[in-house]
Amino acid sequence: MAGHSKWANIQHRKGKQDAKKAKVFSKLSKEITIAAKMGGPDADMNPRLRLAVANARGQSMPKDNIERAISKGAGGDAAVYEEIRYEGFAPGGIGVIVEVSTDNRNRAAADVRAAFSKNGGNLGETGSVAFMFDQVGEVRYPAEAADETAMLEGAIEAGAQDVVSDQDGHVVTCAREDLSDVAAALEARFGEPESANMVWRPQTSVDIEGEAAASVLKLLSSLEDSDDVQNVFANFEISEEEMERLAD
Predict the structure, then answer these.
(1) How is 57-92 classified by DSSP, letter by letter?
(2) Residue 5: which pLDDT band, with cuts at 50, 70 and 90?
(3) Given pLDDT bands bounded at 50, 70 and 90, which one contains residue 22?
(4) Are 198 and 85 in contact (CB under 8 A)?
């Protein structure tokens, strides 16, 4: 979701993400708890937990918060979360995939449906959007972690499929089943990543601007505000100039 990534970067540079830090930590904690509950508290033996902890550290989540989330999951007293994928369309026919972890399916469904309907979009059937995306592993590093050549060499040796490097950082992609191994190899060489996740990468993207761009971003923000929503992906592109204008 290149357009949305640009939006996140601009918002971060303008300092508007501070108020959302608690919500980010809450979602990271939930993923850590789910991973520990499903696969145990030993990150060395639990690839999902290892990735969740790496993501939390990449977002500067305090160590105490991470340890509490692991203990909660391992202790067996955590809520039982159901993982659900919703698919729909934003204004302009933009495909949207919403990943949810919830202990209340009815609440989550109502929140997602409301976000779409209030912002000019509509929910679709399962499979109506996913065919336009590929699910891959993605590892992100800041630009200062390595130069472009070193990151490319490291990614190839780790078994990755592709690397895109620019002023905002390095994005390494790999087969979904290789994510844990690739992330571990990169961490051994470059240190902890900013994030390491399964993502839905669009096969093609739609260029949008003006009112359509504003509507799409409003919908995505509404979805991300839901406590049940863990990740949102969409197949759009917005120019840097348009992003700067919308961020003002």
Answers:
(1) HHTT--HHHHHHHHHHHHTT-S---EEEEEEEEEGG
(2) low
(3) confident
(4) no
CB 140 within 8 A of CB 169: yes
Q: Which helix (H) or strand (E) holds 49?
A: helix 47-58
Encoding tokens for residue 170? 């390095």
First-to-final CA distance of the chain: 21
CATH number of 133-202: 3.30.70.980
Q: Please state, in angstroms and as integers, the Cα–Cα distance from residue 95 to each residue in 99, 136, 212, 246, following that order.
A: 13, 17, 13, 21
Predicted confidence at residue 12, as pLDDT, reads 46
| Domain topology for 82-131+204-247 | Alpha-Beta Plaits (3.30.70)
The arrangement of secondary structure in 2-74, i.e. its CATH architecture, is Orthogonal Bundle (1.10)
* Least confident residue range of 6-20, 35-49, 111-125, 203-217: 6-20
